[in-house]
C-alpha cells in the first residue's frame, strides 16, 4: 500500500486490480495545489490516466502519462516515457513535454525504440480523443474500457464513482 516515486514513498488509500489494469488513489498531504490523486494503469495502452482533485479550480480533467506499465509477481511498475497528454474533457487535448523526451534521448536516458513508442502512443491517444470529441470516456468506451473514479469528501467531482 505504498506509492514509490522519484520524490519519495507515500501511503496509498486504494490499490485495486481491475480487468484493464490497476486503480490507485492517494491523498496529497501539504501540497499547495493538489489534495488527491487517482490513476488507472492501463498496460495494454501504455498509459496511466490520472485525475487530480485540486484545492482550487480544476486545472484539467485528466492528465495522461505515456508509460510502459508492467506487473510481475504482484508488483506493478511504471516507466515514464516522458510524453503526457492533458485533457479538458469535451473541449480539447494536447501533448506535453516533447522537450523532455528529446532531452532524455539526447542524454541517452531513453533508447530510440522507446522514443518512437512514446511518440506513437501519444499521437494515437490524441487522435483517438479527437475522434471522440475529446471525451475520454467515449474514446476508452469504444475500446471496451470503462474507468471508475472515486470522490474524496467535499470535492464534488462528477462521473462514475467507487469507494476510496
UniProtKB/TrEMBL annotation:
InterPro entries for the chain: DUF402, FomD-like_sf
Superkingdom classification of source: Bacteria
Any Pfam family matching the protein: DUF402
Occurrences of domain DUF402 (ranges): 8-131
Protein name (Swiss-Prot/TrEMBL): Putative RNA-binding protein associated with RNAse G/E
Amino acid at each position: 500500500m505504498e506509492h514509490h516515486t522519484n520524490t519519495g514513498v507515500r501511503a496509498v488509500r486504494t490499490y485495486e486490480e481491475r480487468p484493464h489494469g490497476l486503480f490507485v488513489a492517494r491523498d496529497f498531504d501539504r501540497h499547495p495545489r493538489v489534495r488527491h490523486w487517482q490513476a488507472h494503469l492501463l498496460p495494454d495502452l501504455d498509459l496511466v490516466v490520472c485525475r487530480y482533485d485540486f484545492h482550487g479550480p480544476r486545472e484539467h480533467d485528466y492528465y495522461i502519462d505515456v508509460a510502459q506499465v508492467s506487473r510481475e509477481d504482484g508488483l506493478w511498475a511504471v516507466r515514464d516515457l516522458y510524453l503526457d497528454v492533458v485533457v479538458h474533457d469535451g473541449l480539447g487535448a494536447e501533448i506535453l513535454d516533447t522537450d523532455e523526451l528529446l532531452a532524455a534521448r539526447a542524454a541517452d536516458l531513453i533508447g530510440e525504440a522507446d522514443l518512437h513508442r512514446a511518440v506513437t502512443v501519444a499521437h494515437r491517444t490524441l487522435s483517438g480523443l479527437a475522434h471522440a470529441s475529446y471525451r475520454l470516456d467515449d474514446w476508452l468506451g469504444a475500446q471496451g474500457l470503462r474507468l471508475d473514479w472515486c470522490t474524496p469528501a467535499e470535492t464534488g467531482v462528477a462521473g462514475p464513482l467507487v469507494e476510496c
